[in-house]
Design goal:
Elements lengths: L1 E6 L10 H10 L4 E4 L8 H11 L2 E11 L4 E7 L6 H27 L6 H5 L9 H10 L6 H9 L14 H10 L3 E4 L10 H7 L4 E6 L4 H13 L3 E5 L5 H4 L9 E2 H22 L1
Parallel strand pairs: 1-2, 2-3, 5-6, 6-7
Antiparallel strand pairs: 1-8, 3-4, 4-5
Helix pairs in contact: 1-2, 5-6
């Protein structure tokens, strides 16, 4: 039995609706998946309903886009209490900042005589999650660029004319937020970090696992981080980071098949963590 613990939908920057992602996952031979949309949990209820229909295990999750001052550090959260009020309030702050940033980017593009509107961008997403990929797709549709990559390279990428910095949590805060929601924080795709020296500090601040298996990891990345996880007594996870065939260029579902034994270890770690919390409250 195999799982994929890193999947996105249209509730963040994916191209498939939550229920369709579940259906595709079942079709690709997976018995369990984690829904890990960026900075939002809005798709989990729909995915849970679909998981019952298609008889596939659904783990509630999230991928929090964090920044340590030098590099992006994404933190995955598994078995989160996605109804937790404090958790949802923090996510709303992130969502509000995304909306403000998108409007600033669009204003800059308009100043460059690129006439796209906020509503043009919303045709590719919803207001709960709006980001540069959606603006890029609006630029393609408007005929201003030939591809999403060109949109980033010419206009909205880092240091480009319409770039606007965005609000992101520090990874230490992301870890704390996940722990406070009863979840297990795991470092996403460590092989993509510019500097992996931060991992030791993440562990000291409560990190519980590492995404060893990832679609963009080389064999040497996988071996290195598997050894690192075992040496530091960290949980091992893995996922395709599926965003949809349209965006990934191919179907990533099923390319990373995490043995279900790793899911069982993750579930056991979560049970122990939640029991410890209950005992402390007695």
């Amino acid at each position: 039995m195999f799982a994929d613990l890193h999947i996105h939908s249209t509730e963040s920057d994916g191209s498939n609706k939550p229920k369709d992602v579940v259906k595709l996952s079942k079709r690709n031979g997976l018995c369990a998946i984690a829904f890990t949309d960026h900075d939002t949990v809005s798709g989990i209820d729909e995915a849970k309903s679909a998981s019952i229909m298609y008889d596939i295990e659904l783990i509630p999750g999230i991928e929090i886009n964090s920044f340590d001052g030098h590099q992006d550090v994404h933190i995955l959260g598994y078995f989160i209490d996605y109804k937790n009020e404090n958790f949802l309030n923090e996510l709303k702050s992130i969502s509000d900042s995304r909306i403000l940033r998108a409007k600033k980017i669009i204003n800059k593009l308009n100043e460059l005589r690129i006439n796209i509107s906020y509503n043009d961008v919303l045709s590719f997403t919803n207001e709960r999650f709006i980001g540069r990929p959606h603006i890029a797709r609006a630029l393609v549709k408007g005929g201003y660029v030939g591809s999403v990559k060109e949109a980033f390279d010419r206009y909205i990428g880092d240091a480009c004319p319409a770039y606007v910095e965005r609000y992101r949590l520090h990874p230490f805060k992301s870890i704390k937020l996940i722990l406070e929601s009863g979840g297990i924080p795991v470092l996403a795709h460590p092989g993509l970090l510019k500097d992996n020296n931060i991992i030791d500090s993440l562990i000291k601040n409560g990190l519980k696992g590492i995404e060893v298996f990832h679609s963009k990891h080389s064999e040497s990345d996988t071996l290195f981080y598997k050894n690192y996880a075992e040496k530091n007594n960290l949980l091992i996870t893995g996922g395709s980071d599926f965003h949809g065939i349209e965006l990934d260029g191919k179907n990533l579902l099923g390319t990373i098949k995490l043995d279900y034994s790793y899911v069982e270890k993750l579930k056991e770690a979560n049970r122990k963590y939640r029991n410890n919390i209950k005992n402390k409250l007695k």
